[in-house]
Design brief:
By secondary structure, this protein is α+β, with helices and mostly antiparallel strands. The strands form two sheets. A two-stranded parallel sheet has the order 1-2. Strands 3-4 form a two-stranded antiparallel ribbon. A hairpin with a 5-residue loop joins strand 3 and strand 4.
Length: about 120
């Protein structure tokens, strides 16, 4: 039995934030989209759920899905994405580079108050 199976008969008001997020993600994946957009997908999910979601995103990407993710949670998405686009507080692109180049550039991250 998958973790989501036990949620199918629950009333939405009885679900935790992490469970609601799992149901929302499962609902989107059921439509089999080519492009998946996520906004802070790791928020409200326990460590085991974060590990599962990270592995799922990697598998989806390997299967050819395009995944766009807005996040501040760099620790849990490391290894998921090849590319990072960083926006300024004014919503302008200030960097478009390989994920590793961005996340390892501590001067850049400090300059733009990312870390």
């Amino acid at each position: 039995m998958h973790i989501i199976d036990k949620l199918k008969d629950e009333h939405p008001y009885n679900l935790s934030g992490g469970e609601k997020k799992r149901v929302a993600i499962a609902s989107v994946l059921a439509m089999n989209p080519e492009v998946i957009t996520l906004d802070e997908p790791m928020n409200g999910i326990d460590p085991k759920g974060k590990k599962f979601l990270k592995e799922l995103l990697i598998d989806l990407n390997k299967s050819g899905k395009t995944i766009i993710c807005a996040t501040h949670d760099f620790e849990y998405i490391e290894g998921v994405f090849d590319r990072a686009i960083v926006f300024s507080q004014e919503h302008k692109i200030i960097r478009d580079d390989k994920y590793g180049n961005v996340i390892n550039d501590l001067d850049f991250l400090r300059k733009y108050n990312i870390i």
